[in-house]
Design brief:
Radius of gyration: 23 Å
Number of strands: 0
Structural class: mainly alpha
Helix content: 55-70%
Strand content: under 5%
Largest sheet: none
Shape: elongated
Order of helices and strands: HH
């Protein structure tokens, strides 16, 4: 008899979630890794274009050109955020794919 992990269990019997061992789960995990890797490459390219595309832009010293300088700095910041949005999912997926022993605190 299998128990549903969502139903309340007696306190003397801890609930352990079932291990994902079927082929569909492995395929979904591999697909997630591929999508995260593709997004990482796209994010790095777009981020670097924004960072280095705005790097050479420097304007004069009046108020209007200072706004342009501020926008160029904002574009560089957005470029770094885009790169981070590519690194974070890949790191999360790789962490979840690691063996369970590596998740334990020592």
């Amino acid at each position: 008899m299998t128990t549903n992990p969502l139903t309340p269990q007696p306190a003397d019997r801890p609930v352990t979630p079932p291990e994902p061992t079927n082929a569909a789960t492995k395929i979904q995990g591999a697909a997630g890794l591929v999508v995260a890797a593709i997004w990482l490459v796209i994010a790095i390219i777009v981020g670097l274009v924004l960072i280095f595309g705005a790097e050479d832009v420097r304007f004069g010293a009046d108020a209007y050109t200072e706004m342009q300088n501020t926008m160029a700095d904002a574009v560089r910041g957005i470029g770094w955020l885009i790169i981070g949005s590519g690194v974070a999912p890949l790191a999360l997926i790789l962490t979840l794919r690691a063996p369970a022993e590596t998740h334990k605190l020592r």
